[in-house]
């Protein structure tokens, strides 16, 4: 952000915990990873002491496209409405898909992480209004069905 601020015209987009389709250089985030792994197991450990703003990559991409089209500058925060823990996100995934996932909530301290993580990465006030993450999750799941 400091480097970008040195330039008259800059755009920095801050977001949190992405989910979406798997791309050439992306694994698709926690939702796609669990859906893939659910073919082998129904038991998952998920962090329950970190708050995030689950954000659908299609919504984020559209928002960024609009910012660029409007030639907006500055630092923008973009996320789907609402907050959750990763465990809460996976519980909602289980409800929406009907998959009987067994989510064991764990503290983040149980994970071997290479970098310290903030206990709250949520975006409480997005600069662009996006649907609630529950609705975004349903949209993502519906898009996966349509792709088959």
Description:
- With 148 residues, this protein is of the alpha/beta class.
- 36% of the residues lie in helices and 15% in strands.
- The chain is built from five helices and six strands.
- The strands form three sheets. The protein has a two-stranded parallel sheet. A two-stranded parallel sheet has the order 2-4.
- Helix 4 crosses helix 5.
- The longest helix is centred in the C-terminal third of the chain and has 15 residues.
- It is globular, with a radius of gyration of 16 Å.
- The relative contact order is 0.23.
Distance between the termini: 40 Å
> What are the low-pLDDT stretches, counting only 5+ consecutive residues below 50?
none
Shape field:
globular
SSE sequence, one letter per element: HEEHEEHEHEH
